[in-house]
Amino acid sequence: MRRISGVFAAAGRIELVGTHKPYRHRFASCHYPSKRALHRWTLILIPGGCRYQIPSLRSVLDNMKKLLVLPGDHIGVEVIDQTLRVVDWLRTHADLEVDVTTDIIGGASWDRHGTFVTDTVVEKCRVADAILFGAEGGPKWDEIKARGGPKMLSGLRQLRKDLDLFANLRPVKPFDALDDASSLKPEVVRGVDLVVVRELTSGIYYGQPRGIETRDDGSRRGIDTQSYTDAEIERIVRFGFELAMSRRKHLTSVDKANVLRSSVLWRDVVTEVAPDFPQVTLNHLYVDNATMQLVRDPKQFDVIVTDNLFGDILSDGAAMITGSLGMLPSASLGPVDSSGHRPALFEPVHGSAPDIAGQGIANPIAAMLSLAMALRLALERPDLADRVESAIAGALNTGLRTADIAADPSKATSTTEMADAVLAKLALTS
Ligand code: NAI
Ligand code: MG
After folding, report:
1. How far apart are CA 158 and CA 353, in angstroms?
2. Is the shortest distance between the CB of 326 and ligand 1 below 6 Å?
3. Is the pLDDT at 39 greater than 70, yes or no?
4. What does the pLDDT look like over 236-271, one tens digit per residue?
5. In terms of CATH, what superfamily is 183-307+316-322?
6. Nearest CA among 295, 323, 374 for reference residue 66
7. Which CATH architecture has domain 66-175+325-430?
8. Using a 6 Å cutoff on CB, does residue 353 contact ligand 1?
9. For residue 317, is pLDDT > 50?
10. How far is the CA of 362 from the centre of ligand 2 (A)?
11. Domain regions of the chain by residue span
């Protein structure tokens, strides 16, 4: 038996050096183990054969955090390509040990498999520590989704359902350099640091009955159902309280309890849970007032917890505090299972922006900030999350702006140039 003197990893391939003849092995799927992890393998050759210890290789990969990358469609692919450059940099220069695999979802999956997400991808998502998602959809496929039916659910909606990703977090924390990019006044925007926690797996987006019916007189009626159980409300509300405990200990619950019965139950449950978190200051706002307060004085908020519909609308409104949808990251988290594993999907809040796709002008920062959230919340590297965020701040401080945040669009920088600047600043962080 003899040890191998070196192992080199490249895209989808490992190469063992120090044998009589170089031995190459192709992975069935694309794994990119970090160099440092490879050095820890005990690879043994038996004379006359080319056997190496698969179990040790397997166990290294098993012990590494798994990052599944689903770029999706249009600018989803463009911004994730640039974000993967950051991942590669962190693996090479900052000891990020992560097993990265990529797969398709959304329109790309529909075109190849006739479904927006395959069972195989759902299974990969189940075992991943973090899923980094770009954006999916576009005119070519939106009509197919609109037809409805279980196979027509978008990949993302299917994942939210299958992985029970009930807690959607959208932090809104504008960069100082972008004070002037917001449509709100700089003094209103400066210092905002809030998180919208949106319930993601129930409410009117999933309630039954739903549909469009034609009545006897030929007129049509559209129906959606807003429905929440007390258990569904309690788990998202507890999540909101726990998050508030880790921040400034202020929670705002948003509902429409003056009109909707489901909101009356929502408010009841929030009030029942509150005594378990005596250090958290709680207030309730009706959603119409909350919308107004968010643009009047966003600094009053720390954590906002709300249902699926109100959260969708409020968080897109909150996005404008940062200046652009292209700046806003998000995390969607599921329940922790008995082994301590929690499904976690990270994605920019924006969609696939077919209007600007292929031009190389999309802002990659929301996707990069989503990676930072993954590093902090799922990959156990909050130190690297801090570095990525300060590198982005550094790049913005140099004055570089993609078109969506540029005061003068004719001087706007490209997606790749923005990523180049972030990578250059990353090298200066420690
Ligand atoms: P969108 O977020 O894709 O675009 C809205 C506007 O913001 C567009 O003018 C777009 O050019 C701009 N924009 C978005 N992201 C940007 C970025 N990173 N840099 C610069 N500008 C950016 O929303 P829209 O137009 O309503 O939807 C387009 C497609 O995306 C649809 O097919 C929709 O179904 C899908 N979509 C997917 C989502 C997801 O995958 N999570 C979320 C929202 C929409
Ligand atoms: Mg939305």
Report:
1. 21
2. yes
3. no
4. 999 999 999 999 999 999 999 999 999 999 999 999
5. Isopropylmalate Dehydrogenase (3.40.718.10)
6. 374
7. 3-Layer(aba) Sandwich (3.40)
8. yes
9. yes
10. 18
11. 1-63, 66-175+325-430, 183-307+316-322
